[in-house]
Amino acid sequence: MKKRKGAAQQLPYAQRLQMQKEAEIGAHREDAAQTALKIACVALNDTEGLGFYRLSRFAVHLMELIDEYYSDQELGELRLNRRLQQMGFEIGPTGGIQAHQDGNGNPIRREEVGHANCR
Fold first, then answer.
1. What contacts 29, CB < 8 A, 6 or more positions away?
2. Which of 1, 21, 41, 106 has the least CB density, counted as fewest CB within 10 Å?
């Protein structure tokens, strides 16, 4: 009697490798999101004094935004950049946030940038 191969084993080798690669990317993406969330929570606690309840709401909303972003990355990127620009951030040529400071190290909006330092 012949043993039946599982559905995954019936797929061509290249397709199985591609599926494995996509699963690994998804796992790394989740790890990166969780690490960024941890760092953001600690930073908000340090700089803004936010406590458990506010940070919990922040964490839930952040994960919702991440899920929304990855459902359509192109549209998600446009929406994120638009919101960040509305808040006063500048989006750099590579798509990252550029934060500006005045001579005293205080944050300033992109509209106020003259000879300020950029990071």
1. 70
2. 1
Report pTM: 0.65
* Distance from C-alpha of 114 to C-alpha of 61, rounded to nearest angstrom: 34
* Dist CA 60 CA 48 (whole Å): 18
Three-state SS string over the chain comes to CCCCCCHHHHCCHHHHHHHHHHHHHHHHHHHHHHHHHHHHHHHHHHHHCCCHHHHHHHHHHHHHHHHHHHHCHHHHHHHHHHHHHHHCCEECCCCCEECEECCCCCEECHHHCCCCEEC
Q: Which residues contact 94 (CB under 8 A, 6 or more apart)?
A: none
Structure tokens of 76?
Answer: 């998600």
- Dihedral sign of CA atoms 119, 109, 40, 26 in order: negative
